[in-house]
Amino acid sequence: MATTKANKRQDRSAGRSCKGKTGAQIFHEMLLGEGVERMFGIVGGAMLPIFDVLHGSPIPFVLTRHEQGAAHMADGYARSTGKVGVCIATSGPGATNLTTGLATAYMDSSPVVAFTGQVKTFLIGNDAFQEADTTGITRPITKYNLIVKRVEDLGRTVKEAFHIARTGRPGPVLVDLPVDITATKCPVEPDLAPDLPGYKPPLRGHMRQIEAAAQAINAAERPLFYVGGGVISADASDELRALAEKGNIPVTTTLLGMGAIDEASPLALKMLGMHGTACANYAVQDTDCLIAVGARFDDRVTGRLDSFAPNAKIIHIDVDPASISNNVDVDIPVVGDARNTLSRMLERIQPRDRSAWLARIDEWRRKHPLRYATQGHIKPQEVIDILGKLTNHNAIIATGVGQHQMWTAQYYGWRRPRQIITSGGLGTMGFGVPAAIGAQFGNPRKTVIDIDGDGSFSMTMVEVLTAVRYQQPVRFVVLDNNYLGMVRQWQEMFYHRRYSAVEHPCPDWAAVAEAFGATGMRVFERSELGDALKEMLDCEGPVVMHVHVDPDENVYPMVAVGKGLHEMDLGKLA
Amino acid sequence: MRNIISALVLNKAGVLARIAGMFAARGFNIDSLVVGRTEDTKLSRMTIVAIGDDKVLEQIRKQLDKVIDVVKICDFADMNYVERDLMLCRVHTPPEKRSEVVEVVNLFRGRVVDVARESLLIELSGPEQKMEAFVDLIRPYGISELARTGVLAMQRGAQAKRRRAAKP
Ligand SMILES: Cc1ncc(C[n+]2csc(CCOP(=O)(O)OP(=O)(O)O)c2C)c(N)n1
Ligand SMILES: [Mg+2]
């Protein structure tokens, strides 16, 4: 990933002098050098020297309402643009409030750099006011973290943080900055060259492995691509499409891989796994050669492991050697960046007629399409379906976590990478609102919609205030089913409908939005839905649209925990 | 299965916590972990005795390698190597048993480093099997205290493998 398209940038810090500057000034120079366009966060005592240099800085600062919001905004910005997102918090509670956001970015390999204030170096360990062991707390939820204890190390550390966050398997990096270090002047000209002898992310896949993989693919009758977020973060979707088209190889994607292939393509099978499409899951069980790219065989994807892809030779292309042969035994591992590997594989793939295989898949697709009823209450699926059509399947869509997230993945109709912004690995409710705002900041000319659940929206809806204040025209669509719906569904299916702590009454979100200074809309009836959605897309925004949807709708297909992918429950309509 | 892995790591704050935390978070089972200085002031060597099947050990190696502060990993699985562990052990020794115990200590090339009226403090070093054999023999006398450093290991043969990766 060292030079993804989005990350091509010049180092503008070269040749600047740091001697005699304070830590905070050096910090600022380094951010300018990295080309940081925006930061999200909240101020505090331990960050005062930093905020003093941000006064009048060309890098705009977005003051959020909660540090979790700042971290998710940086994450949404990063996922939607491919650039590193930056967030800032003060020591103690500021830093602990960031943690959910960091863990979310870590699980989904999103390049975020967080800077936290820390108490003065000589007070560390004394339970000083607003002291927390930030590097200790965040060690397992960051790709790397560091505390800077000498001002001479600050510049280099900032540089290393950005480098680590964006290269290899991307991820969040945290730099903890004691307030005396940012206030101190640097007595010498510091060495800014990164010093990371233990960090050598593998980039180029091994030629022999690539050849072996290509041979296996060429020999396969029924090959299938299983594609995850690694293809998105490596900007490898063009290479993927070229390969798939050349070999007539169908493609199924994980939740984070949506958009790696245009779903309008006949080769696209949409999502696989627990709530995947029937054709994708049946294809996995039937394929004789499964080519996993930038995906990690998560349990939500594989279902029961010993019956997963039982007939397949498995090829696994991943930039992280540790994710290979971790959950399943892989026949041909290729350690390398997805773009580099796929592009070198292209000339070795023979064009081959696979119409029998594609016809079989097509039959599953025709027999078991995704579908929902259109009587009674508004169905959440139809809101998403209509939104997809109205936006030409081209908007950036953030989500919360729950049923609405799965329906969004199933029904929106993904066309390009970096379109879906969702918490896959950690499953963080509350991600949608701030992530959408971050994505809007990074894509000022694009339509950004948060398709949210009533539960998830409640967790971070305070950030609608941030959208209002900074005039970010995000459209928040709250699919209110009056429940923590996904949990209700599990209680219905696996706990004899003993609904426990899942009822979730909400206020009039439109009224709340109006009080926040946003536009508020409410929809109760199917007859008003289409026009309301059009109106919402046409208005200036930000806008919160409260849609009352069927409280009893369930997500199908569904592979119950412990079942194989072929044992999926297709639902009442199937 | 028991396996010895050694890792050259950067000698800076937080590295031990990072690696120990990784082992705990991933549920890896380790028998001992030793950290100490090396010939290079910038690097420490960690020697880890890990328990698990091939798959687990493979994951341990990969996860260790992924830690950014780890510069190089050496796995002794298929190597000819020397392994050492240092033990201090206080044995209940009434005067009439003293010579008997000392004889065992001598057989194992251990040393008596402190003598009290009713006990001996013994120092012994060697590979795992030797330590265990000694403890088995001495246990009937009554071990009142025992401490071990954990295992260090190094490959046999002069300059076995030059550490290229270790040059920062
Ligand atoms: C922060 C957090 N807390 C709890 C959960 C567990 N959880 C998963 S889905 C869900 C319900 C989500 O409700 P809502 O946002 O209304 O979405 P719906 O399923 O109703 O569409 C809950 C509580 C979670 N994923 N994240
Ligand atoms: Mg709900």
Average pLDDT of chain B works out at: 91
Category by helix and strand content of chain A: alpha/beta
Mean pLDDT of chain A: 96
Tally the helices of chain A: what do you get?
Answer: 22
- Quick one: biggest sheet of chain A? 6 strands, parallel
Supply the CATH architecture of the largest domain in chain A.
3-Layer(aba) Sandwich
Q: Total strand count of chain A, please? A: 18
Tally the helices of chain B. 4
Q: Give the biggest sheet of chain B.
A: 4 strands, antiparallel
Q: Rounded to an integer, what's the Rg of chain B over CA atoms?
A: 19 Å
Class derived from helix and strand content of chain B: alpha+beta
Summarize the structure.
The complex is a heterodimer of chains A (574) and B (168). Chain A has 574 residues and is of the alpha/beta class.
Q: How would you describe this protein?
A:
The complex is a heterodimer of chains A (574) and B (168). Chain A has 574 residues and is of the alpha/beta class. Chain A folds into 3 domains: 5-183, Thiamin diphosphate (ThDP)-binding fold, Pyr/PP domains (Rossmann fold), CATH 3.40.50; 207-367, Rossmann fold, CATH 3.40.50.1220; 380-566, Rossmann fold, CATH 3.40.50.970. Chain A has 22 helices and 18 strands. In chain A, the strands form 3 sheets. A 6-stranded parallel sheet of chain A has the order 2-1-3-4-6-5, with helices on both faces. In chain A, strands 9-8-7-10-11-12 form a 6-stranded parallel sheet, sandwiched between helices. In chain A, helix 1 packs parallel to helix 6. Chain A starts with 22 loop residues before the first helix and ends in a 26-residue tail after the last strand. With 168 residues, chain B is an alpha+beta fold. Chain B has 2 domains: 2-78, Alpha-Beta Plaits (2-Layer Sandwich); 82-152, Alpha-Beta Plaits, CATH 3.30.70.1150. Chain B is 27% helix and 42% strand. Chain B has 4 helices and 8 strands, in the order βαββαββαββαβ. Chain B has helices at 15-25, 54-66, 98-107, 128-138, and strands at 2-10, 29-37, 43-51, 70-75, 81-92, 111-115, 119-126, 143-155. In chain B, the strands form 2 sheets. Chain B has a 4-stranded antiparallel sheet with strand order 2-3-1-4, covered by helices on one side. A 4-stranded antiparallel sheet of chain B has the order 6-7-5-8. The longest helix of chain B is centred in the middle third of the chain and has 13 residues, at 54-66. The relative contact order of chain B is 0.21. Residues 162-168 of chain B have low confidence and may be disordered. The interface between A and B is medium-sized, with 20 and 26 residues. The structure holds thiamine diphosphate and magnesium ion. Thiamine diphosphate binds next to helix 16, helix 18 and helix 20 of chain A.
